[in-house]
Protein 1
Amino acid sequence: MEIVAHGIDLVDCPRIEDMIKQHGERFINRVFTASEQAYADSNKNRAEKLAGRFAAKEAILKLIGTGWRGKIAWTDIEIVNNASGQPEVTLDGEVKKLAEGLGIKHISVSITHTANFAIASAVALAETT
């Protein structure tokens, strides 16, 4: 496998918290899958966890080269933790089609956050020829 693209994003956690307060479940359901919501809800720092997932989704859209537009849905990208706690990426819908078109076979993501900021880095891997 070889690295074919990288994306990174920084999110202001209080901004995500404001979006939740302002738009409530409409915002949460539009942006986060049920699994992502359950993960965030099980933590005391819910807004930070959601901000981290938001940053990861933005980083992935950057590595694909599209940004959020067209037929892309936020929930086409799901970030869930595996048994050891490492975040893993699952793609669906339009984002999956775009990634496959670029030859992307796997996306590795890393997320970190504080009360103020969340940052995510995403690396796209493709088969070597």
Protein 2
Amino acid sequence: MEAVAARAGVAKTTVYRRWPTKLSLVIEAVSQTITADLPIPNTGTLSGDIRAVLHEFVEITNRPSGRAILKLLAEGGSDPDLKEALRLRFLEQRTTNLTMMMERGLARGEVRADVDIELAIDMGVATVIHRLVFMEEPLDHEAADHLATLLISAVIAR
């Protein structure tokens, strides 16, 4: 916090007024870069939208800010405050965006009516988090395409 205050040219108390903990400062700093990076794609097809989201996520996770988020996710299991902050700051908005994409696909007749949209989204998100955080394997464009194919085949109307 002292280094942040010094770099900003303000007193340490000023930093603490805005961010009462180091954790809140880190989450705010990282979220500023991540939030702008995930627009909701609208390619006209669910397949295109899912692929666009996953390929953009590949790019994000290869940036320093993306790697910082992954480290926070890895630490989130042991810190309830961090876990809640990450859920509210990152996962909730992305889940809302993915739900909108799936509902557009449903409205276009691309998604089966019996699909549990929430569960389908959980499958995709959990797979990505498992691979990046727990297995510590990168998500590259080839893996993103493979995951997109699996997700699409699970929900597509035949």
Protein 3
Amino acid sequence: MADITIQNLYRQYKNDVYAYLISITHDKPLSEDLTSETFLGAIKSIAAYKGDSDIKTWLFSIARYKWYEHLRKQKKELTSDDFVEVYMKNKLNLEQSIITAELIRGVHKLLDKENEKNRSIVLLRADGYSFYEIGVKHGISESSARVIDFRVRSKIRAILKKRGYFYD
């Protein structure tokens, strides 16, 4: 990349990174700390950035890693259930609900009924990959990846709603 400076990146993307972290942590002070750590991480790894992904995607992946690192320090071990829980919380507007282990198992069972591509798209999104990156991986357009993710999540939500997990 031609003229990338951390100062310019910080000015241009700090609010986006902070908003992304708020959406996954639901904790303002933690998100502020992780935003700072994200840009410190970017300083350390800017030389390794090859431009294979959008700079914002790269920063979001650093932010996501910093958040995972924080969780690991607190919990010692993370499971895929932890990531699915946060993803489903964010995407299905469950801020008011407590996600139980039964619900998470139910989501996994419903995902297991999907074809491999659909399941992979949802799980990649849960891991924080951009729709662009998912599209490239599956040989589909970014908008197709969005539509598949939306439809699978909507389908899962409708099934869980019928089972009494959600209320309007």
